[in-house]
Amino acid sequence: MPIYGIDLGTTYSAIAMLGANNLPEVIENFADGSSKIASVVYFPKDGYPIVGGQAKDRAEHEPERVAEYVMSYIERSDSIICSFDGVDYDAVKILSLILKRIKLYAAEQDHEVKDVIVTCPVNFGLEGKIAIKQASELAGLNVL
Questions:
Q1: 111: exposed, middle or buried (C-beta count within 10 Å: 0-12, 13-18, 19+)?
Q2: Spatial contact of 69 and 42, defined as CB atoms under 8 Å apart
Q3: DSSP labels, 40-63
Q4: pLDDT value, residue 32
Q5: Which of 20, 50, 59, 96 could be disulfide-bonded to 42 (CB atoms 3.0-4.6 Å)?
């Protein structure tokens, strides 16, 4: 089973794997028409959270229902950063939603993403690294 690399970013995220001739290949996000996905989550009043470009578009019209720039809160993973419809979300929960969406769009292209390496900003301490691992595990990923 291949190992995937996820660049979990503050504004955009992406997933890649080693392809032909051991060269990295980014898995396209066809829903957003891009090689990346916006690290933004929109919480509609009814229904499941929406991640990516559609969520980013909603930020202009309903900023109070959007979570973005979540990576800047990750080292405070024990604190609630937003609440929607009576549900509290910390950075770990929100990042797990972004990672689930990345996993889903890769699966839509016949990639079974399980084992991953997730980037972590160089200035993150141990708490931030643990939080990213927790978010990955919540998304059903095995961090190597």
A1: middle
A2: no
A3: EEE--SSSS-EESHHHHHHHHH-G
A4: 77
A5: 50
